[in-house]
Fold this sequence. Notes:
five-stranded mixed β-sheet, 15 helices
Amino acid sequence: MKALKDLNCIQNFGEFGGVNPSISDSSTYTFLAAKTMFDTFEGNTEGCYLYTRHSSPSNLYLGEAMAELEGTEFANVYASGMGAISSVLLQLCQSGDHILSGRTIYGGTYAFMKNFTSKFNINTDFVDITNLELLEASITPSTKLIYCEALSNPLLEVADIRSLSKLAKKHHIPLVVDNTFSPMFIQAASLGADIVIHSLTKFINGTSDCVAGAVCASKDFCLSLKDVNSGAAMLLGSTLDSLRAASILKNMRTLHLRMSKHSENALYLAQSFESIGVRTVYPGLESHPGHQLMNSMIVKEIGYGGIFTLDLGTLDKANTYMELLQEHQLGYLAVSLGFYKTLFSASGTSTSSEIDIEEQAKMGLSPGLIRFSVGLDGDIAATFKRMKECLDKVL
Ligand code: PLP
């Protein structure tokens, strides 16, 4: 078990000694010599900036912090989580290739693999990531990667990253892990993931004011993504704006405090709802099938994360409950996660609506399932009391 990382060990000062690095407010950069410009296009000159779609100092600072967070050699940042995911998949695969993916994943990623990459003859099998035998049996000579979410959206299945990594290594393919739900407390790369992806939009930024993403991996892979001739990220152009990169970096400084508080509050609510007999899923609960596995993977000081789900049985009940919660100022009926306020949505009709109903039923995603991203409430016991009063009106 790794100890809590102190991200504050990274410090880049501003131009005039400012405690925050200066923001690079330019899309293009001058060269003193024409030869250096040519060399930079060839990817040969470290520390030279060319054009912001390729890189910028502000994006490199945020990338540095992300690499530190995940313990990888390097990291690139992108304009969204999907910008990061689509770039990685298109970099690793070409026509005729096969992706092996967990079946409970974010709906946008599912739709990208099912409907978009298939247009280029890159096909995906979606399998139960907790069934290693089935997973191994699904690997074909064309399989180019194994993809999963460390904690899946929205079912909160726990991926056994160590075992998945062994399997991937045995077949000489990379393990790609989306760690959006579990920043800091699951250090996916140290458990064996080759490429770790984040939607920075969520906990890492924590203020719900922008979308952004990151890829944390080896330096070679990150540089290949921004190669001017063949880099998927460079050529698809999902570039994060430097101003945004600078603001996300500042928000990251409090990530450890926020994640601990999100986790503490989520554990309290999950235990309380479970104790009154509501079907509750949270990896910190002993009733969760992945609880022991979680214990063997997490950084204990942070906890089990800020997301839990309740299953109220029907969509009608879920919708009525969410509207009541919002009316009583207990959070917002909104997608996304990691905000200081609690956010909730019925996953089947929102962030997983890209997955068809039969498939949702097969994977155990009930229409009455509400996903909660728990906020930073100061008095969570009082919050639960009020949430329960609302629930009593619904059940
Ligand atoms: N990965 C997960 C687990 C997500 O929940 C999301 C968005 O909800 C994404 C990736 C996509 O991120 P973004 O919305 O920043 O593109």
